[in-house]
């Protein structure tokens, strides 16, 4: 799989225009890349540009052509009135075909007892895990995770990190970009580390 290359990316917001990204260049190869940096420095904007959700003011993005993207936003964006299982299956082309896989993923994420529970009844950390399972359920070439471990209990976090790592196997190469503020999370994920 070819890497995604961002070259001299520039992005500004507001009036008057305030630069968020100025001539940022980086390469996202197959495997895991962790993007770290202080709040407000432009990590989420850069991830959005890499995914094709945001257009840069200047610069180029190559290597994304023909690739399918899954994006976990900072907000969980769940259907609160639906069950955990229904939320995960919501992004699949065929719910029946993916039902067993979705249940397996939820169980791996420590949500066996919450599979048929309405999302509104779940804790913040549980909702985050449901949102992550929804992001990972469909086979995508590019997976972008914006603070995927936010609000997770420290006891469950290692298992969730392993779930993410399992999607970066050499047999099924993907480009995974993970935004985090936590150095221990980046270390546990392995792969390339980029600081902004």
What this model shows, in words?
This protein is of the alpha/beta class. It has a single domain, classed as 3-Layer(aba) Sandwich (Rossmann fold). Helices cover 31% and strands 26% of the residues. The protein is built from 6 helices and 8 strands. The chain has helices at residues 43-51, 84-89, 95-108, 124-137, 157-166, 183-189; strands at 4-13, 18-28, 31-36, 58-62, 69-72, 142-146, 175-179, 192-195. A 5-stranded parallel beta sheet has the order 5-6-7-3-8, with helices on both faces. A hairpin with a 4-residue loop joins strand 1 and strand 2. The longest helix is centred in the middle third of the chain and has 14 residues, at 95-108. It is globular and about 45 Å long. The protein starts with a strand and ends with a strand.
């Amino acid at each position: 799989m070819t890497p995604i290359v961002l070259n001299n990316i520039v992005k500004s917001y507001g009036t008057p225009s305030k630069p968020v990204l100025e001539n940022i260049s980086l390469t996202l190869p197959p495997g895991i890349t962790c993007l770290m940096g202080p709040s407000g420095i432009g990590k989420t904007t850069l991830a959005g540009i890499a995914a094709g959700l945001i257009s840069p003011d200047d610069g180029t993005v190559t290597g994304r052509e023909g690739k399918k993207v899954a994006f976990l936003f900072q907000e969980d964006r769940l259907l609160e009135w639906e069950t955990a299982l229904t939320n995960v299956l919501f992004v699949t082309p065929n719910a029946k075909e993916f039902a067993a896989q979705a249940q397996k993923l939820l169980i791996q994420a420590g949500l066996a007892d919450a599979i048929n529970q309405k999302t509104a009844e779940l804790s913040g950390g549980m909702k985050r895990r449901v949102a992550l399972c929804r992001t990972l359920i469909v086979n995508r070439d590019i997976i972008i995770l914006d603070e995927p471990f936010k609000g997770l209990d420290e006891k469950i976090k290692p298992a969730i990190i392993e779930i993410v790592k399992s999607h970066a196997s050499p047999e099924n190469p993907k480009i995974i970009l993970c935004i985090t503020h936590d150095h221990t999370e980046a270390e546990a994920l392995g792969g390339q580390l980029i600081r902004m």
